[in-house]
Amino acid sequence: MPGFDKRVSSYEEALKGLEDGMTVLAGGFGLCGIPENLIAEIKRKGTRDLTVISNNCGVDGFGLGMLLEDRQIRKMVASYVGENALFERQLLDGELEVELTPQGNLAERMRAGGAGIPAFFTATGYGTSVAEGKEVRDFNGRPHVLEAAITGDFAIVKGWKADTYGNVIYRHTARNFNPLVAMAGKITIVEVEEIVQPGELDPDAIQTPGIYVNRLICGTFEKRIEQRTVRS
Amino acid sequence: MALTRAQMAQRIAKELEDGFYVNLGIGIPTLVANYVPDDIEVMLQSENGLLGMGPFPTEDELDADMINAGKQTVTALKGASIMDSAESFGMIRGGHIDLTVLGAFEVDVNGDIASWMIPGKLVKGMGGAMDLVAGADNIIVTMTHASKSGESKLLSKCTLPLTGAGCIKRVLTDLAYLEIVDGAFILKERAPGVSVEEIMSKTAGKLVVPDHVPEMGIPA
To answer: Degrees (nearest 5) of the Cα angle B17, B71, A60?
Structure first.
């Protein structure tokens, strides 16, 4: 990978260095914008004892739900989980630890983590279980809760197109947490549908600047739909 | 007669104003989108990063990359914008949404709301609800007035884990429209054909009943 060319030649290379016990941040909202092939590679590698931070945990057999099958996830940090039976079973059996965090907090904590803001105050969760054990301070006559930033050893991201420098653009609501995950990972891997040459993407249109991206790979995606709703 | 889900949505739709940015929660709130008056325009915000959510797609329009907060496939209207989750919640938390409508299990006279978890039942998570109730100024909670077993959901104090504290001022149930002021529910409107007595009997928290409580103007 000379200069700013972030391309790697295989998914194995993309996830080199991921070890047992590490923290992995994953983009996606439901099944939309999930890094399908990077998740599949983690499953193939068999890396265990992972803390996975993502808005959701996929479904049975697809997305992050795949990593439950071989008990690779020790702890899940998410805002909404349980769309899979295996998740529920492992949770009830005590094999899986879950930390639920408000969706807005999750997003902002990742952004802060990538942006060098170690903690911030927010009104979200004041007076609820989310605020337990956390410092509270008044601002503008209203109590706010101190929330810590989130960072991860690895960040796995799904983008739409990228140039070889790792500048990424996303498509529609597949964007969601991906830009934030990209910022907050120590090693960030982005998989996209198409890689173009530098200069082919308008600098004004870039949504994740390549500075955040360590490794880049092109893949094909199933893009499963969780709730297919149409009008006649 | 208690309002149907559709009628509850119709009543809430009367609170929409031209040019409003609106966030509608899952369940009854989503039905509000079906009753936007013809003479105004509103823009629906979906917390997963879409401002200007449109109707469900046709088969031709179906796109796995365009979903709403309930993970259903949707379309985007002309003039829509897409943003990442931090920016989406920045809009919410920064008080930029003009009206938020969401459901609940319980609301109390202090304006506390419980909507995300029932201890003993499997807990799925709070999603964006805590951010929504903390960040929005104009919130309408919509729910049935009492549970199926007849227990009031409008309480002196919420019994379930809270989504937010002191943040609710407006409640629309299948029996009434109420506001919360100075530690009490104020009965502002009743559903057509529903008596004040029935509402009183199903409201556990302190209820202030003005001399005249008009019926809601809802088409049958």
So the answer is: 160
Does the pLDDT of residue B110 top 70, yes or no? Answer: yes
Identity of residue A220: T
Active site (annotated) includes residue B47 = yes
Chain B segment 115-134 residues within 8 A of A by beta carbon are: 122-131, 134
pLDDT for B73: 96
Q: Which residues contact A208 (CB under 8 A, 6 or more apart)?
A: A157, A159, A166, A167, A168, A169, A170, A178, A179, A182, A183, A190
Q: Are B117 and B159 in contact (CB under 8 A)?
A: no
Give the model confidence (pLDDT) of A175-186 as tens digits.
999 999 999 999
**DSSP conformation class of A17:** T
CB neighbour burial string for B10-22, b if at least 16 within 10 angstroms, e if fewer: bbbbebbeeebbb
Rounded to two decimals, what is the model's pTM?
Answer: 0.95
Query: Mean pLDDT score of chain A, rounded to an integer?
Result: 96
Report the 10 Å Cβ neighbour count for B186. Answer: 17
Q: In this predicted complex, what is the ipTM?
A: 0.96
Strands in B113-114's sheet, in edge-to-edge order, are B113-114, B106-108, B154-155
Touching check for A137 and chain B: CB below 8 Å? no
